Amino acid sequence: MPTLSERVGTFTDSVIRRMTRISNACGAINLSQGFPDFDPPKVLLDALEQAAHNGPHQYSITFGAQNFREALAKKVSKTLGRMVDPETELCVTCGSTEAMMTAMMTICNPGDKVMVFSPFYENYGADAILSGAEPIYIPLVPPTYAFDLQKIEDGFRQGAKAIVICNPSNPCGKVFTREELYAISALVLKYDAFVITDEVYEHMVYAPYVHTAVASLPGMFEHTLTCNSLSKTYSITGWRLGYVCGPAWVIDGARKVHDFLTVGAAAPLQEAAVAGLELPESYYEDLRSLYTQKRDFFCAGLDRIGLRHNVPQGTYFVMLDIQAFLDLPQFQGYTDLQFCEWMIRNIGVAAVPGSSFFRENVNHLIRLHFARQQSTLEEALKRLEKMAALLQENG
Ligand code: GLN
């Protein structure tokens, strides 16, 4: 019998993506895998039509089409408060998923240690395994998701080469404050390490919280690989357009890794997405208001029907506390995964079990997202109300 690599035996398939498959099979409202059910901006659809007729249809430059990188550099320069050079400081990837993998493989040798906050977006675990890095987990402790800076210093003392920061954080909705990022950055500089940052939810940050790009802090551009994508910002998760931004010598390495991983992101989609990158500032303000409304509506609905949850500072995710259900006799011994499967089949709403994000033994939280049209959110809340009624019946 031939054997597979040990590597593939060390992680499971993505729980997030698995929940989507079960949800689709059962016809549930899918609030598990985060993606919108509404259209991208019309300028993007028109540009896509143009690209269909006029091309390009062949490979672009492996590290990103010239016009796409130039448009991207303008946008990223504003965020980072410095001129980003499209010739040397950007590598376009197939989504932020590839950007993160590329960043990790660019920096890490097998056995290198990398700090990862827990809870974390589940891909980071697989990124570490595939690149051979050994994660050191730094707890973000619910309900405030605060962390202990001393643990980060301990990690660097143990030789960690990098720290992964997801800001705003999937799944817990934490937005790192400027002070927190300054404190982490001081350690990164002290120990001459790297930050790998995932900032795909940068435009989904709710007042009074504000997004700070770690690479914009003094001295940090040289130590940061900023991973990002167009998926959430322009509602085009299926286009798989992402990028890594960083100092030229690091991006030179990243471009090599990326070239052999995927050759390049889809050329016609890069061409069409330039129209998105050129949208005025008001587009991002409108996007923030739209998601603020959705967050407020969804959280108010959960409050009204009596389900306990956090209020995210950023992202489009809400963590629901299901402990009260797990205490009911009919759910005795249920894992959060079993509870989510029960929810899909009996309530018609799909969520992601929190245990797939935590290193610690956490079984009482599940993740829902609200990147859905108003009518979908209303229907989801109606269904969740039936679930909440179980608590009253038994309580
Ligand atoms: N980032 C989104 C989530 O956490 C989508 C993940 C994915 O499947 N690529 O749900």
User: What are the secondary-structure elements, in order, as H or E?
Assistant: HEHHEHEHEHEHEEEHHHEHHEEEH
Helix percentage: 40-55%
Q: From the 3D structure, determine the CATH topology of the largest domain.
A: Aspartate Aminotransferase, domain 2
Please state the average pLDDT score: 96
Secondary-structure content class: alpha/beta
- Give the name of the CATH architecture of the largest domain: 3-Layer(aba) Sandwich
Q: Name the poorly predicted regions.
A: none
- In percent terms, what proportion of residues is strand? 5-15%
What count of helical segments does DSSP give? 13
Bound molecules: glutamine
Explain this structure.
The chain is built from 13 helices and 12 strands. By secondary structure, it is of the alpha/beta class. The chain has 2 domains: about 5-40 and about 280-395, Aspartate Aminotransferase, domain 1 (Alpha-Beta Complex), CATH 3.90.1150.10; about 40-280, Aspartate Aminotransferase, domain 2 (3-Layer(aba) Sandwich), CATH 3.40.640. The strands form 3 sheets. Strands 2-8-7-6-5-3-4 form a 7-stranded mixed beta sheet, with helices on both faces. α5 (about 125-130) links the parallel β3 and β4 (about 135-140). The structure holds glutamine. Glutamine (GLN) binds next to α1. Glutamine binds near residues 34 and 121.
